[in-house]
Every structure is written in C-alpha cells, then in structure tokens.
Design a protein that fits this description.
single chain
Length: 205
C-alpha cells in the first residue's frame, strides 16, 4: 500500500469529487464575481481576471470599501478597477485586506474603523483605499493610476448642482454623445425657402 498519498487523493477523501471544499468555494465565488462584473463592459480583461482570480479577497475589499466610505451603493465595476490597481501594485495587499475585513463589526462607523486600523498598523492601506475611492486615483510606486474621473466620490456632494470640472461644455465625455440639434435662425430658413433652382445662377464657363 502506498503511504505517499497525493493532494489529489486527499481531496477525494474529503468530498469524493477530487476537489477540496476550498477549491469548490473558490470556484463558486469566481463564477458569482464574474457574473456580477458582466454588467460593466468598461472593465479590462485584466481587471476582471484579478477579481475573479481571488474572489474572497475581492469580496472582502468591497465590504471594507463600503464600510470606510459609508456608501452602500458603491459600484462593483469601480471596485474591480481599484482592486486590480492595488492588487498588482503590492504583494502584501491581499493579506492587508483580510486583516481589515477581520476588524469589521456590524454597525461600525468609518471613524471607529479608521481608529481600529491604525491600532493594528493598517492605517496607511485603509487611507490609500479611501483616497482611491474619493479621488479616483491609486498610487502605485512612483506612478499614479487614474481609475475614474466623474465617478470619484469627491464629486457626489455637489452632483445635484455642479458638473464635474471639465473642459467639455456639458460634463465629462460629453463629446462622445451625438451633439444636440442646432436650431436654424428664422432668417436663414426664409432665405432657403426663397432659393429655387430657377433663381440660382450657374456658370456655363
């Protein structure tokens, strides 16, 4: 009898399928995250792959983000973009997110969350996450990655009265939509009505 059992054989003994419970949960989590992100066509394949590749950490990051910003309506698509920027920029990020998630308690206010993070030497990463959501940028080494512009949380308080600062006349990316119809002055309409083929002189030269 072979006493050198492989990991594969141990998994079979666990549930009879050849997959460990952890593998199954990860697979289900990846499928759920992938289904959620289907509604966000602006995401790159890399951003989707990072979120679906580590669905538990991505879900924890989303919960941490909602707790620290106190916004329950955060976009999963925006979350995937910010998550990817942090994930690719720091190998310690997944472990830091797990530690932050462990600090969460029902009804925990953002200020108390920050204090708890500082006490556990996680204040800097939590501040970086807040900055990412509010400014739409993520610091990655010496570079700053632009994640979003008009969807940055810092513009929400004045969104009912002011457009996001931009050179576009009617808000960010206004030029990507069909331009509004330009009404023709009545005087020009009259001139066009008067112009008939018989009244137009053409050169025979």
């Amino acid at each position: 009898m072979d006493n050198n059992r492989s990991l594969f054989n141990e998994n079979i003994r666990e549930n009879g399928t050849g997959f460990s419970r952890r593998d199954m949960l990860k697979g289900v989590g990846s499928a759920m995250v992938a289904a959620t992100l289907l509604g966000f066509p602006f995401l790159t394949q890399a951003e989707k792959d990072t979120a679906t590749g580590d669905p538990v950490i991505f879900t924890q990051f989303f919960q941490v983000s909602k707790a620290i910003t106190e916004h329950q309506d955060l976009s999963p698509g925006m979350s995937a973009r910010i998550f990817n920027a942090f994930y690719q920029g720091s190998p310690q990020f997944p472990a830091q997110v797990s530690k932050l998630f462990a600090l969460l308690k029902p009804g925990l206010r953002a200020k108390d969350f920050q204090n708890a993070a500082r006490q556990n030497e996680l204040g800097d990463i939590l501040t970086a996450i807040i900055t990412g959501w509010y400014t739409g940028t993520v610091k990655n080494g010496t570079d700053t990655i632009l994640i979003a512009y008009k969807d940055a949380l810092m513009y929400r308080p004045v969104s009912d009265g002011l457009i996001v600062p931009t050179y576009c006349g009617n808000g960010p990316l206004w030029f990507t939509a069909p331009p509004p119809a330009a009404p023709m002055p009545d005087s020009m309409k009259e001139e066009r009505l008067k112009a008939t083929p018989d009244s137009v002189k053409t050169s025979k030269a």
